[in-house]
Write a structure and sequence with these properties.
Elements: H1 2-60, H2 65-80, H3 84-105, H4 109-112, H5 115-150, H6 154-160, H7 173-176
Helix pairs in contact: 1-2, 1-5, 2-3
Length: 183
Amino acid sequence: MWWIIAIIAIVLLIIMYVISTYNKLITLRNRVKDQWAQIDVQLKRRFDLIPNVVSTVKGYAKHESETLEGVIKARNTFLSASTKEEEMQADGELTNAISKLFALTESYPELKANENFITLQNELKETENKIASSRQFYNDTVFSYNNKIELFPSNMVAGLFHFKKESFFEANKEERENVKVEF
């Protein structure tokens, strides 16, 4: 009779573990989605600022249309991305284009003195810092989630309920290189 109680206790412990692990996986997966949404918020802010910065620069740097078109093209590429991976790739291109835009402004002292441009540039720099911070927090969250999926014994529960690994937000090849601006 005592072995029946022991078996029931073991089964209950296993059920409690599965429920607890499942709930933790759901919490982590939702946290990953939330952190991606936080990145989206900052990217939206960036996209709202970019046309204003570009139009301000256009007035001073009319012959730098290639750089300005590159920023707009990178922005539009991101907006047309349909998967998280495409968004990550397009974000890297946009970050690179914005870096070139900032480097371009060094050649135009009158632009650097324009109060409207200075305000926009500061807002864009602040947004870039927030995006970097959001990316880091997103990657930390993905790290925790992926560990929970892969580590024993929670990997058995993750496999049973078909939890999938998430992708890290990684710098692409262009972002790893120094920005080159030629005049």
